[in-house]
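Q: What would this chain look like folded?
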Amino acid sequence: MALSLNRIMLIGRLGKDAETRFTTSNISITSFTLATDYGHKSKEGNWINETTWHNVVAFSVSDYTKEILKKGKKVYVEGRLSKRDYTDKEGIKRYMTEVVTDRIVTLEGKEGAGESAGHDYSREAATVSDQHVSEPINNPVDENDDLPF
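A: My prediction, written as C-alpha cells:
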C-alpha cells in the first residue's frame, strides 16, 4: 500500500457569515469562505499582499459554533482537500475544490473580553470545549490594513 497524506491547515478570516443547510437525513452542512494572505516583496521592493479564498465545509457543527462563525472572524481550520464536480442549472459541468474540515478553532475571544480565548470545534471530540491560545500567532500582515471583504 502506498503512503499518502491529504491534510490542510489554514488560518484566515471568514469572508461572510457561515451558512448551514441540511441533508435529507438531517445532517447539518455548514459552509463558509476563508481568506488567507501571503505577503511578499516585488522586484521593485514594494510589499504585495495576495489573498487566496478557500471554500470550507463542516459537517454536524454545533449551534454555538455556527453562531460565532461570522464575517471577519479569525479562525484556524484543519481538514482535508476535496475536489468534486456537479452540473449547474444550465447543464454546465462545474468543478469545486473545498476544505472538508474536522477542526475549527476561533482565534478571537468574545468581543470586549480582552483575552485571546478561542473556541475549538473538533469532529473527533465528543464535546465542544473552550480552549485558550497560549502563544500569539505571528502574522506578517498588518491587521490594520484593508481586508479584502
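The helical segments are 63-68.
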